[in-house]
Write a structure and sequence with these properties.
Keywords: FAD, Flavoprotein, Oxidoreductase. InterPro entries: FAD-bd_oxidored_4_C, FAD-bd_PCMH, FAD-bd_PCMH-like_sf, FAD-bd_PCMH_sub1, FAD-bd_PCMH_sub2, FAD-linked_Oxase-like_C, FAD-oxidored/transferase_4, Oxid_FAD_bind_N. This is D-lactate dehydrogenase. It comes from Thiomonas arsenitoxydans (strain DSM 22701 / CIP 110005 / 3As). The chain folds into four domains: 3-95, Uridine Diphospho-n-acetylenolpyruvylglucosamine Reductase, domain 2, CATH 3.30.43; 102-220, Uridine Diphospho-n-acetylenolpyruvylglucosamine Reductase, domain 3 (2-Layer Sandwich); 224-339, Alpha-Beta Plaits (2-Layer Sandwich); 346-463, Alpha-Beta Plaits. Helices cover 38% and strands 21% of the residues. α1 runs antiparallel to α3 (53-66), α9 (261-270) packs across α12 and α13 packs antiparallel against α14. By secondary structure, the protein is of the alpha+beta class. Strands 12, 13, 14, 15, 16, 17, 18 and 19 form an eight-stranded antiparallel β-sheet that branches. A five-stranded antiparallel β-sheet has the order 5-6-10-8-9, sandwiched between helices. It has a four-stranded mixed β-sheet with strand order 1-2-4-3.
Length: 476
């Protein structure tokens, strides 16, 4: 774009949004141009902050007219570079931070309508004020936004009971690549009238359109939540415990998180105030949570009975059941501090794999051998949502090694080992983080050719100018 056309474009944006909502100076744009992991640094023609869906549509119309790419950004907490512009300086970042209203809550119908820029924790709080639960929960819930959660089909810690973000969404409001507002804010649990456009836009990472609002499912608040930290010998024992928990607790089983002993040792090293309730006599721990409808005494008795049976069956080594909300929060803080402890330890190679539970033991054992053979001294920091087959299979540099150099020299080889192993087990290289910039080549390498062809056809049909989050998922 020539300088004169740039000026006309920016002037049109200012006329639409107001000067204060079009950021152009480098110091104003800087917070929007680097991803959360600081792996991607981009440039932008401007950062725009529309205040409603009509303004988002107006921005997209101007971008279509001038051929300018649009990079939607919510809380900027993504892990694959999906909300960062490229280095050309010819794209705009469209921040949804001003689209932050709870439009309505229907307690009887169990539906809340939130705009895309609503922080997840604010949606949780709005539901709680009506005695209801919005169950999506993840470590970044104090800063991630509903639009970002839906665009990546976020998972989190309660997928086992409530499902991914897609299952928690009834309908969407979306601005299309042509700048039209698609009002598909379905408030019904049943509505079989044509294609499910919700499923098309959820998980598309902003490459087909921009989510501006969503109708979200609400649930009854549990009468009690009982949390336990359990030590197990190995992954096979953890899977055995999961089977027993499913049989004994049924749908009240809400969380089932697997953590390697090394991941918890990193937490203790960098956050010594976060104490474990017992010594680590084994290689693995499970954080288990049950959400009860009957009440705390009944729930605690059921969980303790489960743990006693698991101990008698040789599935567990030790266990500690939280006796208060504070203790429960402390156990979850251990789990949620693992990524922070890794960051304190230094740069690391992250993976977000999904593997069928029937193949999980084989995956963990064989991949550990392959990685340590290829990268002697590398430390495996493995944790994640075992209940739904999703592990963060991370690799830390050897003790004393230059972490940045280790990442630069070995990431490609490590990624190939881990992703090949996951796919060979019938799994995926991206279970919940998305593709973004980081995994575009992996999508091309591992994707089903027929599925890829259909996805490309959808992209071409809905965004023929390739203006919606260009360079994400697909090259170019």
């Amino acid at each position: 774009m020539l300088p004169a056309e740039q000026h006309r474009f920016l002037d049109a944006l200012r006329a639409l949004l107001g000067t204060s909502h079009v950021l152009h100076l480098a110091e104003d744009c800087a917070p929007y141009l680097t991803d959360w992991r600081k792996r991607y640094q981009g440039r932008a023609l401007a950062v725009v902050l529309p205040g409603d869906a009509a303004q988002v549509a107006g921005v997209v119309q101007l971008c279509a007219l001038h051929g300018v790419g649009v990079v939607p950004q919510g809380g900027n907490t993504g892990l694959v570079g999906g909300a960062t512009p490229d280095a050309s300086g010819e794209q705009i970042v469209l921040s949804t931070r001003r689209l932050n209203r709870i439009r309505s809550i229907d307690p009887a119908g169990g539906v809340l309508v939130a705009e895309a820029g609503c922080v997840l924790a604010a949606v949780q709080q709005a539901a709680a004020e009506h005695g209801l639960l919005f169950p999506l929960s993840l470590a970044a819930e104090g800063s991630c936004t509903i639009g970002g959660n839906l665009s990546t089909n976020a998972g989190g810690t309660a997928v086992l009971r409530y499902g991914n973000a897609r299952e928690l969404c009834l309908g969407l409001e979306v601005v299309t690549a042509q700048g039209e507002v698609l009002d598909a804010l379905n408030l019904l649990r049943k509505n079989n009238t044509g294609y499910s456009l919700r499923d098309l836009y959820v998980g598309s990472e902003g490459t087909l359109g921009i989510i501006t609002a969503a109708a979200l499912k609400l649930f009854a608040q549990p009468a009690a939540q009982i949390t336990a930290l359990v030590a197990v010998h190995d992954v096979a024992a953890a899977i055995g415990l999961l089977g027993l928990a499913n049989a004994r607790l049924g749908c009240s089983l809400t969380g089932f998180e697997l953590m390697s002993a090394h991941s918890l040792q990193l937490v203790q090293q960098h956050f010594p105030q976060l104490a474990l309730p017992f010594e680590l006599p084994s290689a693995w721990c499970v954080l288990l949570e049950s959400s009860e409808t009957e009440g705390e005494p009944q729930g605690r008795a059921r969980l303790e009975s489960l743990l006693e049976m698991a101990l008698n069956d040789g599935l567990i080594v030790n266990a500690a059941v939280a006796q208060s909300l504070a203790q429960s929060q402390a156990l979850w803080h251990l789990r949620e501090s693992i990524p922070l402890a890794q960051a304190q330890e230094g740069l690391n190679i992250k993976h977000d794999i999904g593997v069928p539970l029937s193949r999980m033991v084989a995956f963990v054992e064989s991949t550990a051998e392959l990685v340590t053979q290829a990268l002697p001294g590398a430390r495996l920091v493995v944790f994640g949502h075992l209940g739904d087959g999703n592990l963060h299979y991370n690799v830390q540099a050897p003790v004393g090694a230059d972490a940045a150099r280790f990442l630069a020299e070995h990431q490609a080889v490590c990624n190939r080992i881990v992703h090949d192993a996951a796919v060979a087990c019938g799994g995926t290289f991206s279970a919940e983080h998305g593709v973004g910039q980081l995994k575009r080549d992996d999508l091309a390498r591992y994707g089903n050719p027929v599925a890829l062809a259909q996805m490309r056809a959808l992209k071409q049909a809905l965004d023929p100018q390739n203006l919606m989050n260009p360079g994400k998922m697909w090259p170019g």
